[in-house]
Fold this sequence. Notes:
With 300 residues, this protein is of the alpha+beta class. It has helices at residues 2-8, 11-30, 39-117, and strands at 122-133, 140-143, 156-158, 163-170, 175-179, 193-197, 200-211, 216-222, 237-240, 252-261, 268-274, 283-289. The chain has a domain at 119-289: Thrombin, subunit H (Beta Barrel). A six-stranded antiparallel β-barrel has the order 1-2-5-4-3-12. The model has no long low-confidence stretch (mean pLDDT 77).
Amino acid sequence: MFELFRTLGNRKLFILLIVIVLFVALMGVTLGDRVGLTWPEKFVKDTVGFTQRIVNKPTQAVSGFFEDISDLNSVYEENDNYRIQVAELQRQLIDYRTLKNKNDQLQKDLEFTETQKRNSNKYYRFSHVVSVNEDVNNPTVNIDVGAKDGVEVGMAVTSIEGMVGIISTTTEYTSTVQLITSLSLTSPDSYSIAATVTGKDGTFGIVENYDKKQNRLLMSGINNNDPNKEKIEVNDIVVTSGSGGVFPAGIVLGKVRDIVPSEFGLTSTAKILPSASFVEWKELFVVIPGVDPNTGDGAQ
């Protein structure tokens, strides 16, 4: 034993040897058959478990925080996509409403032209309004059809409601419409319209003047003294008669609002409220006598 101390020659090495021997002995005891843990094992195990809980909770919290941030970013991205989709749907809805309104208007235009074709020997050339001249003394409208479309000076122009005016000038691709609100007995450029009342054969008058103050077309030369003819009355519908061959028959002018006898009582003048509104036109129709050479359309 003393030989061993001399061999070691160091107290620290002796103490280390004793610790190793005790550790080996302790391991032998713990590896043997036993029911529970020793107090050193319990202490170590509890210490490790407690330390893990302290470390794991903040770690889990930090991990959860970054997961929440990631989920929040995903929500923002989804919301941005939804906003884009909603904006696109709103734009498509606007386009749909615009197309629907245009389709409804075209259906009305088609129904109008089909009805008119069945009523007289004429056809209608569809046109868009290009511009409007609101000169009080000479109101006109420019449309996008001209000589190449068969349009000629002197042809009637109408809206769905009623007659608007007459073609005063044309180019190859455009035409100017002089409105019936410019009718005047004192104007050398004015014109006269032979008219009658629907449902009353033989009634006749001339529309050649417009009262701007009352917004009335004046139909003069009405003979109310012929016992063989029906009398023109208030609320009668006045249309072109076709006499003289200037305008085809059946173009609506307006409704009778008043009848005034002449000074000597031989004739009367009917005051007619125009059917056309003369406001915000988008489409107009040029009334062309005869049959459409392109399609063969036109009532006989």
